[in-house]
Specification:
Elements lengths: L17 H11 L8 H13 L4 E5 L2 H11 L7 E5 L5 H8 L3 E5 L9 H7 L4 E4 L11 H11 L2 E5 L7 E2 L2 E2 L6 E5 L12 E5 L2 H10 L26 H33 L14 E2 L5 E4 L3 H10 L29 H9 E4 L7 H16 L1
Parallel strand pairs: 2-3, 2-4, 4-5, 5-8
Antiparallel strand pairs: 1-9, 6-7, 6-10, 8-9, 11-12
Helix pairs in contact: 1-8, 2-8, 3-4, 3-7, 8-11
The structure holds pyridoxal-5'-phosphate (PLP).
Pyridoxal-5'-phosphate binds next to α3 and α4.
Length: about 375
């Protein structure tokens, strides 16, 4: 057996410092534990951060998407367009509300485009879910224009993209509803939480009510009257408090991530390796949650880097059209040529803000060693 690598480059670090320790104890020592001032402030602060009017916190990004679909009253007989190259919860939520998911391929950058959406529109289309993969914004304006013309809703899946900008504006608040995940994404809450944002007051009110049993309830006002079918999808005060602290740190982290991404790209391209580094369009300022390369012999490279102590990931290895639970909805893999190729080639390298220049050099050296061997 080979000895373990002496050097470790991990995927991400959780930040637990004195400010967070102090805050956690302060919140634990008082009530309420949910639906209290930390969550309300977190909602206001995330909404303001992405220049949206309303924030609706929930216990995961998945729950936010479910709330969005429910608030838009999307259900039986409706079609929702989404990329196959994404996380499984996107299709789960569409199916959970009884709508029909229409899976599509993606462009080479891993994102949906307006022309892909156009090819899948039908008279039943009620919504499109563009996913800002890896923190690289979708080219949204043409999709938003089409949405106006053809009357469908745009729900931005910005789970990866808190802090990313498209045409100078932060993503999330650009469509009808957007949502973020805080489960170890651009910011972490050391647990599971998410936030939906919208500029539409009525949608915000609906999502707020649906999040807690369909009640129209103010904190401290226990009405317990369900005006519509809802659920309990609230998050905890503790997690909101951690999220608030990390939100104040996000821009600094994003700057470092972007710097790391630029250095890594330079290190990798200088060596003429058979590898594609991520590209960025002029209208994008990515948050660089994930730094994703495309490489031949990806699985071997992944195993080799693990031996060198470098943690990598694949976002995502099994596209939705190949997931056993959903395969019957899109049985022909030939309809997804780019997604198929991406799922074989993509590899996510560590990109977090605590990487040193030595870590970046070590990653590039290790990748070079693999291809030269
Ligand atoms: C693209 C995408 N959408 C939605 C989600 C769901 O977020 P959560 O895990 O907070 O439910 C994730 C989670 O990783 C994701 O990557």
């Amino acid at each position: 057996m080979k000895p373990p690598a002496t050097r470790q480059v991990t995927k991400r670090l959780t930040v637990i410092d004195d400010e967070i320790r102090h805050k956690v104890l302060e919140v634990l020592e008082r009530t309420p534990y949910y639906a209290g001032p930390e969550t309300e402030a977190f909602e206001r602060e995330v909404a303001a951060y992405c220049e949206a009017n309303h924030g609706i916190a929930a216990n995961s990004g998945t729950s936010c998407l479910l709330l969005a679909l429910m608030a838009l009253e999307i259900g039986k007989g409706d079609e929702v367009i989404l990329p196959s190259h994404t996380f499984v919860s996107v299709i789960e939520c569409v199916l959970a509300v009884g709508a029909a998911p229409v899976l599509t391929d993606v462009e080479e950058d891993g994102n949906l485009s307006c022309s892909i959406v156009e090819r899948h529109l039908s008279k039943h289309t009620r919504a499109v879910i563009p996913v800002h993969m890896y923190g690289h914004p979708v080219d949204l304006d043409p999709i938003l224009n089409l949405a106006k013309e053809r009357e469908f809703f745009v729900i931005e899946d910005a789970a990866h993209a808190l802090g990313s900008r498209y045409r100078g504006k932060r993503v999330g608040g650009l469509g009808h509803i957007g949502f973020f995940s805080f489960a170890g994404k651009s910011i972490t809450v050391c647990g599971q939480a998410g936030m939906a944002v919208t500029n539409d007051e009525e949608l915000a009110e609906r999502m707020t009510a649906l999040r807690v049993h369909g009640w129209r309830q103010r904190v401290g006002n226990v009405w317990h009257v369900s005006e519509r079918l809802g659920l309990n999808l609230r998050t905890s005060e503790l997690l909101s408090a951690i999220g608030r602290i990390n939100l104040t740190r996000l821009d600094g982290w994003t700057e470092v991530r972007a710097g790391n991404a630029a250095k890594l790209t330079e290190l990798l391209t200088n060596r003429s390796l058979p590898l594609t580094t991520p590209r960025t369009r002029d209208d994008q300022e990515p948050g660089w949650l994930h730094y994703v390369v495309r490489a031949p012999r990806r699985d071997e490279l992944e195993a080799y880097l693990a031996e060198q102590g470098i943690e990598t990931a694949v976002h995502y290895r099994v596209p939705l059209h190949r997931q056993p639970a959903f395969q019957k909805l899109a049985p022909d893999p030939e309809a997804f040529p780019i997604t198929e190729q991406l799922s074989r080639e993509i590899l996510t390298l560590p990109s977090h803000p605590w990487l040193s220049d030595d870590d970046l050099g070590y990653m590039a050296d290790s990748i070079e060693a693999f291809f030269r061997a």
